[in-house]
Amino acid sequence: MKTLSRKLLQQLSSKQTEGYQVFNQTKFHARMVEFLAIRHHAYSTKAIPDFGQPTPASHPQLMNEGEITPGITSEEYISRRKRLLELLPEKSFAIIAAAPIKMMTDVVPYTFRQDADYLYLTGCQQPGGVAVLSQECGLCMFMPEAKAHDIVWQGQTAGVDAALEMFKAEKAYPMSKLNEILPGMIKRSCKLFHNTLTATPTYTDMETFQKAAHVGKVSDLSIFTHDLRWVKSPAELKLMKESASIACQALLQTILHSKTYTYEAMLSAKVEYECRMRGAQRMAFNPVVGGGPNGSVIHYSRNDQKIKGGNLVLMDVGCELHGYCSDLTRTWPPCGSFSSVQEEVYDLILQTNKECIRLCKPGASIRQIHNYSVELLFKGLKEIGILKRDQFRSYHQLNPTSIGHYLGMDVHDSSMISYDRPLKPGVVITIEPGIYLPSSFDGPERYQGIGIRIEDEVLIMETGCEVLTGSMPKEIKHIESLLNNYSHGMEMEGHNNIKAATS
């Protein structure tokens, strides 16, 4: 306020009349009153409750009326809770804790990411809460109590009012009431389920909880929530398609610049920038950017090497859009062309990718598709000469991974669901065959240091499947054409700019 007064004072005092300089104190006060009135009026007409996360009122460009999170309505959240209650045994209830804040240093937290089960059932994107779901009370939320100091430093957060108004809880209490209310609920129940991965001492240290666990009344809730999350709703699939589209566009832009961005870290920064600029809130995981031999390290994440000319780059990336993840991998030569050896191995991986995608349909399972991929790759590696006839055990050293995994709110989604379960329409999986030949590989020298993976997202449909990452090129001729034509275009543009500047 003092700064504002000083600026207005300077503006008014700088005005001159003929022959003399005037400062009118009355005018100054009038301007101040006018400014404050306008400021107060503007604020009051746009007074919107701050629930600590986007709402249709605060972010109309992002959310529609009736949505708790972008793309997901309150009706869908209520339906999820109803379906979970139908799965739970009679006279049982569930405790779902929000993810905790994790500190990077004493005062600097890591970027917060909500626990998927808590988000799936409540829509609350903030830490510190505990939700209880039962036939007795419906959704009961215990909410953190924001202190004045926290609001000043971190902003407003959702409280009891938000739990009732925004998240549609039947009951809501401050966290200080947890010790008073939860023990009674535990005593009245025959069975208690909770998310063991995000369990918090706030309730696990309670004497009643520990007694219930001791007599076998406590079980993992994930067997139910993962089952619910396994098949995606139309609203969820819309978000997953958008997330996949963002990742594809970002990776394509990164590939096109890879001739000039010759460091793994640059490519990692580029793909994250492109994802964020297209609306993703974060990366789904730290990008894997393996140049040359680093591509043979399956979850390589150091991204600190210079990419040598002629080497391949394996990039595994995914982003998160409003709680839903994407995941895809492409391998390409930044120089613009595959060598004959690289092309030989790449073509084997590409054909395996295509054949496995053809198997993706209702009734098939990830396990069946995986076993088929092993047959194809083992046969191909023998024909190429990378493996000998009696080296089936060596194959698993070159590819110890599954052909794919479930995908959704987590990258490896619904991990409690067996890979033997027959796939259903609405399930999203990855298909990601790969071969990883380290520099120490005991085989033909020309293949040493090559890592190749081609990963796509696949949605199971009634009549087959849809490849959600189908817009991302993977054919050799398409990749080489893109790299060479784009680079040529950049060179021509630079030449024309120089010509125009010197003419």
From TrEMBL:
Coiled coil region boundaries: none
Keywords associated with the record: Aminopeptidase, Hydrolase, Manganese, Metal-binding, Protease
InterPro entries on file: Aminopep_P_N, Creatin/AminoP/Spt16_N, Creatinase/aminopeptidase-like, Pept_M24, X-Pro_dipept-like
Cofactor: Mn(2+)
Every Aminopeptidase P N-terminal domain range: 72-203
A GO biological-process term: proteolysis
A GO molecular function held by the record: metalloaminopeptidase activity
Pfam families, A to Z: AMP_N, Peptidase_M24
GO annotation, cellular component aspect: mitochondrion
Similarity comment: family membership: Belongs to the peptidase M24B family.
UniProt name for this protein: Probable Xaa-Pro aminopeptidase 3 isoform X1
UniProt organism field: Herrania umbratica
